Amino acid sequence: MSVTDEELAEQREAGNRLGAPSRLRVVAGRFFGSFQGRAGFALLALMFLLAFAGPFLGRWSYTDRDFTAFLAPPSADHWWGTLQTGADVYAVTLRGMRRSLVVGLLAAVVGTTLAAVVGAFAGYFAGWTDRALTWATDLLLVLPAFLILAVMSPLFASGQWPLFVLVLALFLWMVTSKIVRGVTISLREREFVHAARFMGVRPTTIIFRHILPNMSSLLVVDATLNVSAAILTETSLSYFGFGIQPPDVSLGSLIADGTRTALYAPWTFWFCAGLLVVTVLAVNMVGDSLRDAFDPASGRGRR
What we know:
Blueprint: H1 5-33, H2 35-53, H3 89-125, H4 127-142, H5 145-151, H6 161-169, H7 174-187, H8 191-198, H9 203-211, H10 216-239, H11 251-258, H12 267-294, H13 296-302
Helix pairs in contact: 1-12, 2-3, 2-12, 3-4, 3-6, 3-7, 3-9, 3-10, 3-11, 3-12, 4-7, 8-9, 10-11, 10-12, 11-12, 12-13
């Protein structure tokens, strides 16, 4: 019995649809098959649940003030104590952690996306495109990011934290873009890229449909690890007063305020500092486990 071209095409499409989830299941199996992956995922899920659902369990909002309890220790009324202003430590800490998580996630996604696009275009088109994008990348690598963010910090006030995310992401993508460029130079000589080019497929379509999907593991791992880098950067900037601006709060600004009272009121410092350590540790554990899941040889090499 003969098979028509339409039936062959349908079979290939069905195979492709079955192949993608199959690879996803393999990676997920490797990830959750390791203790580090399970522990990191559980910790990170707990941090997100605490940051986004935890405020609904408390009696106080992060804007509330209890003028009968200044620097009060943890109690039934204030589970994690209060600050010098009478603010509830539980409420403001979870608000700060939520802001730090959102900033870290968005900055990592924007930075990794920018790295993928710039690196792929530079590696595929070569010539003047490669030279111009490489020059821009090298320029951003030598610019003092901390100083630029500090100078621009007045622009981040009055709820302009999305601008802070964008500026922060602009200094997270350069090293990854160079890696993507090198991988793209190798991939553009592969048979499937030549076949697409000979069929008249547009270069941008080749980049987004054929080249970038073939480095998805690199981009996923990079985005995950960039989350912790963005959170630490935001925390450092906010600690010195250059990040998230009042009346909003972040873990960095809370840690900065808590250092003044940490010796005689440790609850003002250690709750936010501890959550920062656990969050960054969980993100790094997830990132390392994802890398081992996509490339099992890397995990064997470290052991």
